[in-house]
Every structure is written in structure tokens, then in C-alpha cells.
UniProtKB/TrEMBL annotation:
It is found in: Cell membrane. Its main location: membrane. This is MFS transporter. It comes from Sporolactobacillus shoreae. Pfam families: MFS_1.
Length: 416
């Protein structure tokens, strides 16, 4: 009976034309982004030879998005989501073709590239909440976690294959080819979005000012205890303590002489674990979303603690694979829950607020982790961070206590 039910859900996803259009376009552009990222880093390092220049470019890729996100959410909550997706894809593709032309002709300018990266970052800030608020409108509640799992699978698959494809293209063709390919992926996504039909959401009867709608979205998140807890745990605490993991891996690999190849395998184990997690959610029984999120966060914490206590190569590869598995469970559980408990006309602003906090937390967590590495043994840092991550996951029990104890709706959640 269960297998038949799950097969019906998968069949519903495949037959959902709007979901297939959205998935097809975004799947291609997500892979294109991963391919181009390695080309971008390679180009800047080759042309400048400066790590500082590389850092400035990464800064240009993140800061504009953080600044624009809270305001972009206001637009995403209007009935112009399709237009935002179309315009963002078209101009991001156009910019990529311009960068490809500049690198092909040898007219490399770090200032120009950083300017283009800042523009793309700003457009990403508009695109992300529009996409996030569109998915729950084209999928019913029973299929939402499955749909999010498909997107998570594509993201993780792209992080594994994208750099490999990008490296091959650079070796056999040219650096400009990766930019052109990413530009093409955006244009393909643009054409997919042209045929997309996004259901309209109810809007206020009287016209509200931009600032009023912005404040409404901000205070809406603060008022809803469950939504605020999801934002703080999933977007702030976890991001802060997981952000420096890459630095810890580099330090451990150097201390234990794993070499660059060993570091690469452990790093890949995270993506492989996350990919398996997405597949497990898609083909398995989802169950209670908050319980799944809590299990994922505890997995992440336990994986960090075990990696600190047993720091040999095989063990760490297994433990960081477990970390990736937990990341998928936690991100899909928290993300889907947030979509379900947020009103249709406020998802864009809520998503933007959470994304802004998450994006701001990552560099702070990276700096904090870098500081601790110089003060304490890495294995003890991993143990402490693991305890904090696992403990923060357990805090989700309190705002969702009624649902977890059984007084829940069919979907395991009750809208507030």
C-alpha cells in the first residue's frame, strides 16, 4: 500500500507540467553555475595571482545579494513571480555571454568582472525568493517535500559533477567556454520560464506602500514563534557552526598528511552523503517533517563529534558522509516546514529575511572558526561544534511539541 502511494506521488510530480518546466530550467542553470564557478576562480587567480583579488570577487558575489534580499522579497510576494524569474534568467545569461566575450578576446578587467558579479548577485537576490515562493504554489502539500528533495538532489549532483566538467572544458577548450556555457544555461532556463504558469495569491484590497509591506514581512517572522525558531536554528546557528568546516578539513588534512587528494575525497563525501539523503527522502517515507529535520541536525552534530574523536582518513570520510546525509534531512525538513506554515502572500519576504541572515552568518562563522584553529586543537573544536549543532536541533522540539506528540494535521503540521 505504501509503495503504491509513493508511486502515485512520483507520478503526480512527473505529470505536473509546471513543476517539470521549473525543474528543467533550474536544473540546467544550477549545473551551469557550478561549472562556471571553477572557471571564474581559475581565471581571477591566473590573471592576478592574488588571493586578495579572489577574496574581493567572492565579496562582490555575496554582499549585493545580502543587501538587496530583504527588499527583493517584497516584489516576490506580488503576482509577478514569473516575470522576476524570466527577467533574472535573461540578464544573468546576457552578463555571462559578455564575460565570455571579454575573456575570449583577452580584455580581462578585474574591475569589470567584479561589477558584473555584483549585478548577478543582486539579480540572484530577486530570483531566489521568487523561486522559493513559486514551488509551494505549483505543488500540493503532500508532494512538497518530494519536490524539494528533487531540487536538493540536483544541487548536490551539480556540486559533484560541475567542477569536473568545468575543469575539462578549461583544459580542452578555453576559460571563456565555461562562461558561455553558463550563459546558455540561463537562456535555456529563460525559455522554460516563458511557458510557466504561476498561480496568483491574494493581495491586500487596498494598496500598501513598499515600506509597509517590508515591515509586515519582517514582523510576521518575529511574531510566529515556530517560524522564528526555524530561521534562527536553520539559518543562523547551523550556518555559523558549519561554515568553517572546510577550513577544519584543510587543517586536519595537512596535520595528518592526507594530502590534497585525501582532502578532495573527504570533501566529496559530504556532497555524496547529501545526494543520498535527497534520494532517501524522495523514494522513502517522508514522515513528520520536523522530526526529520531534528534527526538531520543530530546527525550533523554526531558526525562532527565522531570526526573529532576518530580523526583517521577512512573514519572521517564516513563521518562527513553522515554529515552530508544530515544536511539534506535538515535542510529539506526545515525548508519544507517553513513553506507550509508561511502564508502564500508572505513567503517571498520570509525567505528573503532568512536568506539574508544565513548569508550574513556564513562569513562570521568562517572568521570565528579560523580564529579558533589558531587557539585550540581542531579535534576539540569539532567535538564542541558538534555538541552545539546537535543541541540546537533538539530545541525544535519546544515550538513544535504539539505536532510531535501527535496532535497534528495530515501533513504533520498545523498552520498558525
Amino acid at each position: 500500500m505504501y509503495i503504491k502511494c509513493e508511486a502515485n506521488r512520483m507520478n503526480q510530480l512527473v505529470k505536473n507540467r509546471q513543476f517539470v518546466l521549473l525543474l528543467g530550467g533550474q536544473g540546467i542553470s544550477i549545473l551551469g553555475d557550478q561549472i562556471y564557478y571553477i572557471g571564474l576562480m581559475w581565471t581571477i587567480m591566473k590573471q592576478t595571482g592574488s588571493a586578495m583579488s579572489l577574496g574581493m570577487s567572492v565579496f562582490c558575489m555575496t554582499l549585493p545579494s545580502i543587501l538587496v534580499m530583504p527588499w527583493a522579497g517584497v516584489f516576490a510576494d506580488r503576482n509577478i513571480k514569473k516575470q522576476i524569474l524570466i527577467i533574472s534568467d535573461f540578464f544573468r545569461g546576457l552578463i555571462m555571454f559578455v564575460i565570455a566575450f571579454l575573456t575570449l578576446e583577452g580584455h580581462f578587467s578585474l574591475i569589470a568582472i567584479n561589477l558584473f558579479l555584483a549585478l548577478i548577485s543582486a539579480m540572484n537576490a530577486f530570483f531566489s525568493p521568487a523561486l522559493s515562493s513559486t514551488i509551494p504554489l505549483i505543488l500540493d502539500k503532500n508532494n512538497l517535500s518530494k519536490g524539494n528533495a528533487v531540487f536538493e538532489f540536483i544541487r548536490r549532483f551539480s556540486t559533484i559533477c560541475g567542477p569536473v566538467i568545468g575543469g575539462i572544458l578549461i583544459s580542452f577548450l578555453s576559460i571563456s567556454s565555461v562562461f558561455a556555457l553558463n550563459g546558455l544555461s540561463f537562456i535555456i532556463s529563460f525559455f522554460f520560464s516563458l511557458f510557466l504558469k504561476v498561480p496568483a495569491v491574494s493581495q491586500p484590497e487596498h494598496s500598501e506602500s513598499f515600506l509597509t509591506r517590508f515591515k509586515e514581512g519582517f514582523f510576521y517572522t518575529l511574531r510566529m514563534k515556530r517560524l522564528l525558531c526555524l530561521t534562527l536554528v536553520g539559518g543562523v546557528i547551523i550556518n555559523f557552526f558549519l561554515a568553517p568546516v572546510e577550513i577544519f578539513l584543510v587543517v586536519i588534512s595537512h596535520q595528518l598528511k592526507f594530502g590534497s587528494a585525501g582532502l578532495g575525497w573527504i570533501d566529496a563525501a559530504i556532497s555524496i552523503g547529501a545526494l543520498l539523503g535527497a534520494l532517501t527522502i524522495f523514494f522513502g517515507k517522508t514522515g513528520h517533517l520536523i522530526r526529520m529535520a531534528m534527526i538531520g541536525l543530530v546527525m550533523e552534530g554526531v558526525a562532527l563529534m565522531l570526526a573529532g574523536l576518530l580523526p583517521d582518513f577512512i573514519s572521517m570520510a564516513v563521518f562527513f558522509g553522515l554529515l552530508g546525509l544530515g544536511v539534506s534531512f535538515a535542510s529539506i525538513g526545515i525548508g519544507t516546514t517553513s513553506q507550509l506554515i508561511t502564508e502564500d502572500d508572505k513567503r517571498g519576504r520570509v525567505n528573503s529575511f532568512g536568506a539574508m541572515l544565513s548569508s550574513s552568518t556564513v562569513p562570521l562563522g568562517t572568521l570565528f572558526g579560523s580564529f579558533l584553529v589558531g587557539q585550540l586543537p581542531v579535534h576539540w573544536i569539532l567535538v564542541c561544534f558538534g555538541l552545539i549543532v546537535a543541541g540546537s536541533g533538539m530545541t525544535l522540539y519546544f515550538p513544535f511539541k504539539k505536532e510531535l506528540l501527535g496532535t497534528e494535521t495530515k501533513n504533520g503540521l498545523t498552520n498558525q
